[in-house]
Automatic annotation (TrEMBL):
PANTHER family: INNER MEMBRANE TRANSPORT PERMEASE (PTHR30413), TRANSPORT PERMEASE PROTEIN (PTHR30413:SF8). This is Transport permease protein. It comes from Sphingomonas ginkgonis. It is found in: Cell inner membrane. Pfam families: ABC2_membrane.
Length: 256
């Protein structure tokens, strides 16, 4: 009985992830290549501006920037999709017995799948610039899991809040754009003045990006304190997000 109850949300999540992933590229010319083209365009711009024009002396800058771009793209795509996951699917939400709680999971998982499509390109850039990931790669699944929990917690909050306050869909891109610049995506934390370091200490995504760079660029195990802090932040966000989502879900049908 328990296994059948658990199996249904998993099956629904799997089917919806496939639907969203296929639908995203259904009527495009190059299909899934758009998931790689988009971050590559940002990489070319950042590389030209910061490596060629401003001559920022960051080793392996293409790899450095691409890791940050992909990490932030996962967050950005997840939350953008989650914002409309409830309000944009009244047909699914109104179905009796439909596991509404799977929709934010679908948004986060689909964005992760898009991220994984860029992994071969990232690997090629790393090898080209001389990075040689080694034993530290064993920590990568843990970092991805912590990152998933962190993003999923935010996705639950955004999905539920947007049902009652549709302004979220308009405010969210602005917040994400501002977050892009206060997160060390295209610059190193070493260049941040000491008086502003506290801002980045309270930014979980900054710790996530640093952990990815430690593993992929320097073959170094991420700092345990940073991972622990990000893990605690992710667990708290997920708990708060699910709790708020469960309270708000009884009003979903009335408000969509």
């Amino acid at each position: 009985m328990i296994s059948s109850v658990l199996r249904r949300p998993l099956e629904v999540t799997y089917l919806l992830v496939l639907r969203d992933f296929r639908g995203r590229y259904k009527h495009t010319r190059v299909g899934m290549l758009w998931s790689v083209i988009n971050p590559l365009l940002f990489l070319f711009i950042f590389y030209f501006v910061f490596s060629e024009v401003l001559a920022v002396k960051t080793p392996r800058y293409a790899s450095f920037a691409f890791v940050g771009i992909l990490s932030w793209s996962w967050l950005q795509n997840s939350l953008t999709s989650a914002a409309s996951s409830i309000s944009g699917n009244p047909g699914l939400v109104s179905q009796p017995g439909f596991p509404v709680g799977t929709l934010p999971v679908v948004s986060t998982s689909t964005a992760l799948l898009n991220l994984l499509l860029s992994a071969p390109v990232l690997a090629a850039i790393l090898l080209f610039e001389g990075a040689r990931p080694g034993l530290a790669l064993a920590a990568l699944p843990l970092v991805l899991a912590i990152n998933f929990v962190l993003i999923l917690g935010l996705a639950y909050l955004v999905a539920a809040v947007n049902v009652a306050f549709r302004d979220v869909e308009h405010i969210l891109p602005i917040i994400l754009q501002l977050g892009y610049y206060v997160t060390p995506i295209f610059y190193s934390t070493d260049r941040i003045p000491a008086r502003y370091h506290w801002v980045f200490q309270f930014n979980p995504m900054a710790h996530m990006i640093e952990a990815y760079r430690d593993i992929l660029l320097d073959d170094r195990w991420p700092a345990p304190g940073s991972l622990l802090g990000a893990g605690i932040a992710g667990a708290l966000l997920l708990g708060a997000g699910i709790a708020y989502f469960r309270r708000a879900r009884f009003r979903f049908l009335e408000e969509i």
